[in-house]
């Protein structure tokens, strides 16, 4: 009984701070490792986390971009994605891929058609990806992901010695998955992918 009272007291003390932070809806640093920082914040009133990843690399934007769009090579770094196929490939303009997600039992597998648009400027390269609705057929064994967006900024560093990467986005896998599970992946998934990009770039050095 004493232990339960102590836990309850602690929750009552911490609750005002949590509510204050949630109201401000600011980015919160969740992971800072190997030069990669991952931040999250709630997306509106959905309670699902948006993510923001920031890192710097000693490579030119063009080289980083080439690795990012090497989808087949990067497949092993994509969380839960077990297959990928190309639907449209307009080099340096637009990429459209089908992605299948192998979810742990008893959760149904997911699938998504993702389209990425590319824009080059003097300062860097900008990628914008989102799900494409109305293409997937209804299947009993899979659930389509219809709420995904991600933006990449691969910009030249101020000192010209490399590049600064900023990635923001979110994904709502739909279905009956607890929000806390979805939010767990909002930190782990982008960190794993960008770590993989860095590993591939190091292999070329």
How does this structure look, described?
The protein has 205 residues and is α+β, with helices and mostly antiparallel strands. The chain has one domain (26-204): 2-Layer Sandwich (Alpha-D-Glucose-1,6-Bisphosphate, Chain A, domain 4). The protein has four helices and ten strands, in the order αβββααβββββββα. It has helices at residues 2-24, 61-68, 71-74, 179-204; strands at residues 28-33, 36-42, 49-57, 81-90, 94-101, 109-120, 124-131, 142-144, 148-156, 163-171. Strands 1, 2, 3, 4, 5, 6, 7, 8, 9 and 10 form a ten-stranded mixed beta sheet that branches. Strand 4 (81-90) and strand 5 form a beta hairpin. The chain is globular and about 50 Å long. Residues 1-23 have low confidence and may be disordered.
Q: Indicate the structural class.
A: alpha+beta
Largest sheet: 10 strands, mixed
Strand share of the residues?
35-45%
- How would you sum up the global shape? globular
> Which H/E pattern describes the elements?
HEEEHHEEEEEEEH
Average pLDDT score: 85
Number of helices: 4
The first-level CATH class name: Alpha Beta
Number of strands: 10
Which blocks of ≥5 consecutive residues have pLDDT under 50?
1-23
Radius of gyration: 19 Å
At CATH level 3, the topology is Alpha-D-Glucose-1,6-Bisphosphate, Chain A, domain 4
């Amino acid at each position: 009984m004493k232990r339960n009272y102590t836990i309850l007291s602690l929750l009552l003390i911490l609750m005002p701070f949590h509510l204050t932070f949630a109201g401000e809806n600011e980015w919160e640093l969740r992971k800072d490792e190997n030069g990669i920082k991952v931040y999250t914040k709630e997306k509106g009133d959905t309670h699902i986390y948006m993510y923001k990843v920031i890192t710097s690399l000693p490579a030119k934007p063009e080289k980083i971009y080439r690795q990012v769009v090497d989808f087949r090579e990067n497949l092993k770094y994509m969380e839960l994605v077990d297959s990928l196929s190309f639907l449209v490939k307009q080099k340096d303009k637009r990429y459209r891929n089908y992605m299948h997600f192998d979810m742990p039992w008893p959760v149904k597998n997911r699938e998504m058609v993702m389209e990425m648009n590319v824009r080059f400027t003097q300062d860097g390269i900008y990628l914008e990806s989102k799900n494409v609705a109305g293409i997937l057929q209804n299947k009993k064994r899979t659930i389509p992901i219809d709420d995904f967006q991600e933006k990449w900024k691969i910009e030249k560093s101020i000192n010209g010695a490399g590049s600064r990467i900023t990635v923001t986005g979110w994904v709502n896998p739909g279905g009956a998955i607890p929000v806390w599970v979805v939010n767990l992946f909002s930190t782990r998934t982008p960190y794993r992918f960008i770590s993989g990009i860095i590993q591939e770039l190091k292999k070329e050095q």
